[in-house]
Amino acid sequence: MSQLLLNHLTRECAAIGEFLELLDQEASAMTQGNFACLPGLTERKAQLADQIALFSRQREIELVKLGYTADRNGAEAAANAGGKLLQDTWNKLLTRAALAHEHNYRNGVMIHTHLDFTRQAISFLHAGGQPLYGANGAHHTGSNSGNSLALG
Q1: What is this structure's pTM?
Q2: What is the mean predicted confidence (pLDDT) over 58-65?
Q3: Total domains, the chain
Q4: What pLDDT score does 99 carry?
Q5: Which CATH number characterizes residue 29's domain?
Q6: What is residue 149's predicted lDDT score, i.e. its pLDDT?
Q7: Separation of CA 31 from chain center
Q8: Does 140 fall in a domain?
Q9: What are the phi and psi torsion angles at 70 (to 5°)?
Q10: Residues near 114 by beta carbon (within 8 Å), at least 6 away in sequence
């Protein structure tokens, strides 16, 4: 077993675990309407994505040094040849990566749902091409159709 490969896999797996936690925090923030914290989460996610990419490149370099291809097949072969600990770490990494993909997709759907809702709300407020409210926040009297937003 290559201790260096195991170290790369362990660091990569831990970073993906942190990424999963951020994705869950992001989903929770959107669900609770706490949109103010999203920019910070997005920045941290970008940093972690860069870190994960670096760890992935380091893993690929180590695989090549060990005589394997720098792809999933090479990692599978190295894990199978490296013993139970290396196999378990590789499998944990794959599981976390799949979860991260699913959670990222879920969050993307949530973001697009919020975006669509916001667009629809803006369209409603711009009914007929005339804004309901002026730049000063006052209601335009000419566009009043008799319906109140408060009444639904």
Answers
A1: 0.75
A2: 95
A3: 1
A4: 97
A5: 1.20.58.300
A6: 52
A7: 15
A8: no
A9: -90, 50
A10: 30
